[in-house]
Amino acid sequence: MIRPQFIGIGILIVLIFSCGCGRRSGNTPVLVPVSGVVTLDGGPLPKASIVFHSTMGGSSNSSVGRTNEKGEYSLIFSQRNIGAAPGSYLVEIRTREEVVDKDGNLVSDTPERLPVRYHDHSTLNVTVNTDNPIINFDLKSK
Q: How far is Cα 140 from Cα 118, in angstroms, rounded to an integer?
């Protein structure tokens, strides 16, 4: 007769090998850990949101990030997945922040500091690939 603890160990081993450790889950594409620095007129651009919109169709392939005080960012594809899928992207960078309270009322609105060519009418196009996962943006205010 097989002891219960051996059955439990066997099930655990099967679960470990069937989870696909290190492999993609579900519909998550292979991702490149994209990061870089965003500057404005030569200085770091803190607290900016950055969105990579796939130009190959489907908003599900977009990745987002936020710059820190040094202008550094890293992209996130989803809650558990870091990076962006290889391919072509239109990039939007914004500094405007809207803060709402728990009732949905606007309590703070930081105006946009960047020209529209970097967000609403973005001209920023990049290609993500494994050869160079570092993508920097040197923005100009004029």
A: 10
pLDDT tens profile 108-119? 678 899 999 999
* β-bridge partners, 92: 51
**Dist CA 51 CA 91 (whole Å):** 6
- The domains of the chain, with CATH numbers, are 27-139 (2.60.40)
Q: Give Dmax over CA atoms of the chain in angstroms.
A: 79
**For the purposes of burial, counting CB atoms within 10 Å of the CB of 1, is it exposed (0-12), middle (13-18) or buried (19 or more)?**
exposed
Among 68, 45, 33, 60, residue whose Cα is nearest residue 118: 45
Total-model pTM: 0.74
Contacts of 93 (CB under 8 A, 6+ apart): 38, 45, 48, 49, 50, 51, 114, 118, 119, 122, 124, 137, 139
Helix-, strand-, coil-residue percentages of the chain, each rounded to 5: 15, 40, 45
